[in-house]
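Long-time lurker. I teach an intro course on protein structure, and each term I like to show students one example going from raw sequence to a predicted 3D structure in token notation. This year I'd like something fresh instead of my usual example. Would anyone be willing to generate the tokens for the chain below so I can use it in lecture? Attribution to the forum is fine with me.
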Amino acid sequence: MTLTPVASTARAKSDATVVGAVDRARAALVEEVDEGDVGDHLGALVEGDRVATHLFACTRAGYLGWRWSVTVARASRQKSVTVDEIVLIPGDEAIVAPPWVPYKERIKPGDLSPGDLLPVEEDDERLVPTYAVGEDEGLSEDDVAQVHSVAFELGIGRVRTLSLEGREQAAQRWYDGLGGPDSPLAQAAPEPCRTCGFLIRVAGSLSESFGVCANGNANDDGRVVSFDHGCGAHSEVTLQKRHLPKALPQHALDDWDDEFDPL
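-- Reply from a regular --
Happy to contribute to a lecture. Here you go:
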């Protein structure tokens, strides 16, 4: 693979000295790594005025598709170049680690063990304050605690509740999950949950779309399900005659009397 020298910006100009400094870049590279790990020169990229990066194939075992990157530069009115940086970078075919995902985004239902704590940020968009405490008015911690106590006694209870975004995220997550209409269990169900006698509607703004299964024989017992979800344990399901168990024959009574002698 050969890379055509390309300016990274419209103002950068290709400099013949830095672009042609292939031998200087290779010599600097083999001083840092084994010469056997350095392959063919793949080309040069113009990074700026009098600055270019030379790429060499990496032949080290386990680094298929990676490249050695050597950046060289030439000062104004100087004939020689200097080596700025030597790094190993991945190419299009290189095997690299997946993008980093924060641990809070990696946690799934069931990952938490007894005693594990998962704190929620103060500015979490899923939550909004239930009532105003008045911290901006210079209240002390004791005064704020008193406000919380009175709010609890009045039935306000929770300091924060679900925001509109929090409800929408929960609804989408439930609808797309195993309790939604697209799960294999729902696709094979004879009737939807909306017509099932075991469905308990949830309260609030989600009451028209979700409920909780109360059928102890169902896979979804105690779980949130959408109204268009379903399973084979629907309250109105009846078996067709060919699916019913075969009736057992009548009991045969042995009334033979060994002591009876007709002769």
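Some talking points for your students: Strands lie at 38-48, 51-58, 66-73, 82-90, 127-129, 160-162, 199-201, 210-213, 224-226. The CA atoms of residues 55 and 69 lie 5 Å apart.
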